[in-house]
Every structure is written in structure tokens, then in C-alpha cells.
Amino acid sequence: MNAFEIVKTVRLTEKGTRQGTQTVRYHVKSKDGQSELKTRPLNQYTVVADPRANKFQIRQAVQELFKVKVIAINTLNVRGKPRRQRTKQAGKAPDWKKAIVTLKQGDKIVIT
User: What is the Cα–Cα distance from 51 to 20, expressed in whole angstroms?
Assistant: First the structure.
């Protein structure tokens, strides 16, 4: 599979945009033993990936397509919801794989 087959799209949702800009607070100890509180952006993006792809393949595809450095990837398989469209027969939305990609500080995925 090539990078375009592995990464289908970047999901644009309220939660996803919040993860891209949300800040995380963490403690840093200085040389004199004092603890200092710093903040950094969470810098996470949600990607729809091919269900057959593993984390390593998704990492390579995102780095190749968007020219960014990936720090971590969390994946989950999302089950499709049951649907009914103007008929008595029930259908089902397709299953898909969600990948939450954490990027290096300073990198961004620009979506136009």
C-alpha cells in the first residue's frame, strides 16, 4: 500500500481542532531543585486510515504526505452505526480506523 491508500483523510471535528491547539501543563526541575510549571501544545490530529494498516505504516505515510515528524500514534477501530434510510430494511455505515497522530512541537498539518 502506498501513502495515499493508507491515509484516507484528516478528520475536521470540534474535538480534533481542540486537540491541535490545546495546551498541556508539565513540571520541569531546574538545577537548583526548584520545580517550574511549563506549557506546550498537545499538537494532535485525527486521521482516517485504512483498516489493514498498522501504526508503523500510518506513521510513515503521515510523515511522507505532510512532511512532519510524528512522535506517537494511537489507533482504534470504529464500528459503523446502524442506519435506516427511507426503508424498513436496516443498513450499516462502514467500519473504519481512526488514528490520533501526535506531532513534534512546532510541526503542523495545514488543511485548506
Answer: 24
Per-residue pLDDT of the chain (112 residues; tens, 9 = 90+): 899 999 999 998 888 888 888 888 888 888 888 888 888 788 999 999 999 999 999 999 999 999 999 999 999 999 999 988 888 888 899 999 999 999 998 898 887 7
CA distance 96 to 78: 5
Residue 8 and residue 78: Cα distance in Å, rounded?
Answer: 15
Q: Model-level pTM?
A: 0.81
* Residue at 112 is within a domain: no
- Scanning the chain, the segments in alpha helix (DSSP H) are 3-6, 14-21, 55-66
Domain extent for 48 = 3-27+36-82+90-103
Residue 108 lies inside a defined structural domain of this protein: no
Domain count, the chain: 1
Q: How far apart, in whole angstroms, are the C-alpha atoms of residue 43 and residue 17?
A: 9
